[in-house]
Amino acid sequence: MKLKDILSSLSYTLIKGSTDTDISDIIYDSRKVVKGTAFVCLKGFNTDGHKYAQDAIEKGASALIVSDDVETDSDITIIKVENTRAALAVMSTEFFQNPSKGLTTIAITGTKGKTTTVAMIRSILECAGIKTGTIGTLGIVIGDKIYKTANTTPESYEIQQAMRKMVTKGCKAMVIEASSLGLKHHRTDCITFDYGIFTNFSNDHIGESEHKDMQDYLESKAILFKNCKKAIINIDDEAHTALLKDSLCEKITYGFENSADYTAFGDKLLARQGFIGVHFEVKGKKELSSDVAIPGRFSVYNALAAIALCSDMGIADEHILKGLETVKVKGRVEVYPVKSNYTLLIDYAHNAVSMENVLKTLREYKPHRLITMFGAGGNRPKARRYEMGEVSGRLSDLSVITEDNSRFEDVNDIIADIKVGIDKTDGKYVIVPNRVDAIRYCIENAQAGDIIVLAGKGHEDYQEIKGVKYHLDEREVIADILNPRTEEDTLPIED
């Protein structure tokens, strides 16, 4: 495209050169610059793209997009804008020809529940025959293909590129996890969402590289509701009032309160062979009796958000019910089906807070034993290990302590730190340093009625040791343990 066409919706100053130049791609990582590209100098917490402007010029960039002055003798085109992150969103939208116009766009924000709610909505819509792409913690998902991303909410270029790919692949809807930082840093700019969903709000993401305080955190999330046509809101969370104070969009509410448009009641836990979840009833704009294949009362809130959205979209009740009953969220209390009478779960819980939430939820199902296998990350605060050990010792009937991403630390040192916490409790534990061996131990020693949680890895398919990421997908490990391959299976295929 011509640079002038990419800049057509942007306010800018031409410092030097011509906007009539051809641009083959938009790049914001100088390492990826090739001849004919436009390099956008983004400012981040740890680095500033302006420092790499000369490197981009030497690699053949045709244009620089800057917010600070850049000195160069090159005849490269230089465009100055107020904010390069906002500019990247505008340019990417033009470059990919505004793909959101071809999709029903749905964004979900909140402290917790985003990943699960995305999965529920996708499950329902696809049951209804609506091919749906998603963007979030699990990456960019289009059909059976997963494209990994660096952030829950990727940079605007990746979002626009993904939506264009979704349209090309026949998707009719897109669901994205809109993180507070993603909203604050203009990654979702230029999309007027058909629906914005609010799950909940609690203390999180406060720190030097994130939000300065809770007010900044709340205001960042509120950006979504100034840029959506309809808001679907958890009315039970008191933060919703402040969140919507400057929003003019139509409001649809859900919760356990009678004043909600979609009200849940009669919730009860469900556990049967191959299924652990929750049942609840809905009244208000919709009357339903639903089973959700994800455990815990919090799942009702996420399911209600999905029901409110899909009902407003005109999705039939049968598809809503089937989508919720069959939903799976990779690495979020994900049930791995086993033939024996115990329940095996894979979960991403990798700190004390998330572990406590999961274990307290699972204790409500009154298992014969609750067994938690976990480790802790290397080169991370030791306090996190003490806390995880104490939580598991207090809430588990048996803890199986093993490795996680030990990074550059010795796994035995990490395990020793975990023991400091678990020894504060009277919880039983065993130590199996190798993670694969620890999974095998859990499976081979399972008893009827047990719930076993493999905690820490979740959706991850690798293990990081001494700076190297080795492939490790716990689903594959479990499959090999339950159905060991014979020597014949592993023989090389001869021509």
Produce a short descriptive summary.
This protein is of the alpha/beta class.
Count of helical regions: 16
- In the CATH hierarchy, the third-tier topology of the largest domain is known as UDP-N-acetylmuramoyl-L-alanine:D-glutamate ligase
Oligomer designation: single chain
Give the beta-strand count: 24
Fraction of residues in β-strands = 15-25%
Provide the number of structural domains. Answer: 3
Given this structure, which CATH class of the largest domain is correct? Alpha Beta
Which structural class do the helices and strands define?
A: alpha/beta
How do the helices and strands line up, and which of them pair or pack?
Layout: H1 3-6, E1 13-16, E2 26-27, E3 38-40, H2 53-58, E4 63-66, E5 77-80, H3 84-95, E6 104-109, H4 114-127, E7 132-136, E8 139-142, E9 145-147, H5 156-168, E10 173-177, H6 180-184, E11 193-198, H7 214-222, E12 228-234, H8 240-243, E13 250-255, E14 262-272, E15 275-284, E16 288-292, H9 298-312, H10 317-326, E17 334-336, E18 343-347, H11 352-363, E19 370-374, H12 382-395, E20 398-401, H13 411-422, E21 428-431, H14 435-444, E22 451-455, E23 462-465, E24 468-471, H15 474-482, H16 487-490
Parallel strand pairs: 2-3, 3-4, 4-5, 6-10, 6-11, 7-10, 11-12, 12-13, 13-14, 18-22, 19-20, 19-22, 20-21
Antiparallel strand pairs: 1-5, 7-8, 8-9, 14-15, 15-16, 17-18, 23-24
